[in-house]
Amino acid sequence: MGEHDKAKRGIPPKEDFSSWYASIVEIGDLVDKRYPIKGMDVWRPYGWKAMKLIDGITHSEMERTNHEEVNFPLLIPEDLLDKENKLVAKLKAAREAGIDPSEMRFDEEVEGFKKEVYWVKNAGENELDVPMFLRPTSETAMYTIFPLWIRSHTDLPLKTYQIVNTFRYETKQTRSFIRVREIHFFEAHTAHVDEECASAQIKEDLEIVNNIMSDLCLPVIISKRPVWDTFPGAWYTIAIDVIMPNGRTLQVASCHHYRDQWAEAFGMTYEDAGGIKKNCHQTTYGMSERLLGAVVGTHGDDNGLIFPPKIAPIQVVIMPVAAHKNEDVMNTVNMVSETLRNHGLRTHIDARKIRPGQKFYDWEIKGVPLRLEIGPRDIENGTAFAARRTGGKSPISIADIVSEVNNELSEIAAELSDRCNNTYSKMVQKLNSMDDQIDDSIVYEIAFDGSDSDAEILEKNTGLTILGDDILPYDEPQKCIITGKMTTRKQHIGKMY
After folding, report:
1. pLDDT tens digits for 205-253?
2. For labeling, which of 11, 170, 185, 493 is most exposed (least CB within 10 Å)?
């Protein structure tokens, strides 16, 4: 068995995606799954660093768009969940009856999140008068306090966000980052004077999404979810889906427009310039550690992880070669590392006394974008030997090391984006007729303008799920795949995680 084979031992081929993914998150030192609660992995330093770098991009986008960070308590009293459940039940019933929610009474019981949450019913040996639960998301916690912060139209818009852990009792098979019980979660909650201002916020959210996905080198499908797949508490939901290598779609983010439905239930009002009391209109925008799951699954290969440079815990690993033959080698390695660090790059020096081949494979598994080797001959030539994780090797100038390394990292990011776009174009195919053979590892683009019952026929006959209306419709009308009517509505169907 060669050195490479030894290093790769334990990594199944990516073609067997489920096995590959389950293995690589541990072999790549992202998580440890041995914690004695199912669906609650331990973040290892390397994985946590990657997640915090994604959070850093999110923080920057929030700062740029004037959102302010808050931190709400983890525990929520049961009566707030009951309040949410009554609201959601009312909205759901109104939607099903096709009438305005204001015409519905608050009298229908609904479980809502009740079966999905973790309960706290005792404090020490005392039974709590009001049981509490660990937040599955923070609407009820926040919307209890927001009315105390909002008095006048001058207090709006209120734009807040937090990055916290949320908890859901997940009963399906768990999978690191993709389906877990303790979720590393980002949530933005905003309040506005009217529907138009809230809609403008959704538009801003989608700009933020595009910036983040660009940094992660991930192509996405952005869809307005169909009514039956919209959270009943929302007027509409826009979901952001990544296509994973097995053809399944993974929802990594969503934006909800709430109109004034929650404000009505939670008394979230303001006085306008004329002193008239009005309900706020609200939005939420959520993302989770699924972003890291999408990065792992999309970019990795048979040899391990590949990190996009913007979120790589180590962007450049520097390896001294034959340092025992010339003391200038380590001096140069240290100088190069320090220079790069001073310019904001994340570096690591690997001076371990092991065979170079073993080092190469270790960093290959961890997905470090760029490897630099510096030996006596390189010093004579004034170069470092650069090897990209995406393939390709060349000498680069030590005198211009910062600009050279930045160029290399830009090329790696561009290569990852190109690969994803190529894969995306193969995995998204147009379906023109219901007679076509269906492959459930493909996401199909369709023209669809049918009713709920037409959608049911479509999903039943294909075995796939409708993602919803693409936010970019067709330029020219096309024939609806079920009704034959001409429509510009572009939709996608596929297998969802």
Report:
1. 999 999 999 999 999 999 999 988 888 889 999 999 999 999 999 999 9
2. 170
Among 113, 108, 115, 79, residue whose Cα is nearest residue 91:
108
Phi–psi pair at 217, nearest 5 degrees:
55, 40
Exposure string over 426-438, b if 16+ CB within 10 A, otherwise e:
ebbeebeeeeeee
Q: Which tens digit of pLDDT belongs to each residue from 138-176?
A: 999 999 999 999 999 999 999 999 999 999 998 888 999
Helices (H), 107-160: 139-149
pLDDT of residue 227: 87
Long-range contacts of 419-425 (CB under 8 A, 24+ apart): 419/299, 419/390, 420/217, 420/218, 420/219, 420/298, 420/299, 421/219, 423/243, 423/245, 423/298, 424/219, 424/243
DSSP result, 78-100? HHHHHHHHHHHHHHHHHHHHTS-
Tell me if residue 222 falls in helix, strand or coil.
Answer: strand
Could you read off the pLDDT of 423-449 as tens digits, one per residue? Answer: 999 999 999 899 899 998 999 999 999
Own/partner long-range contacts of 143-147 (Cβ < 8 Å, ≥24 apart): 143/262, 143/263, 143/266, 143/268, 144/80, 144/266, 145/72, 146/189, 146/191, 146/266, 146/268, 146/280, 147/266, 147/267, 147/268, 147/269
The secondary structure element, H or E, covering residue 239 is strand 236-243
| Partners of residue 493 on adjacent β-strands | 444, 466
pLDDT of 82 strictly over 90: no
Q: Quote the CA–CA distance of 204 and 202 in Å, as a whole number.
A: 5
pLDDT score of 105: 42
Q: What is the mean pLDDT of the chain?
A: 92
Provide the token pair at 99: 């009438």
Q: Are 98 and 91 in contact (CB under 8 A)?
A: no
Cβ neighbours of residue 68 closer than 8 Å, sequence gap 6 or more: 159, 160, 161
- Residue type at 160? T
Pairing type for strands 316-320 and 347-349 reads parallel
Q: Which long-range contacts (CB under 8 A, 24 or more apart) does 46-49 make?
A: 46/313, 46/366, 47/292, 49/313
Burial class (CB in 10 A: 0-12, 13-18, 19+), 304: buried
CB 257 within 8 A of CB 236: yes
d(Cα 190, Cα 87) in Å, to the nearest integer?
19
Q: Of 249, 370, 247, which is closest to residue 239 (Cα–Cα)?
A: 249
Indicate if the pLDDT at residue 382 is higher than 90: yes
Rounded distance between C-alpha atoms, residue 59 and residue 218, angstroms = 19
Largest CA distance in the chain: 85
> Tokens 């940094």 correspond to what residue?
215
> pLDDT per residue over 95-106, tens digit each?
776 666 655 444
> Kind of pairing, strands 269-271 and 347-349?
unpaired
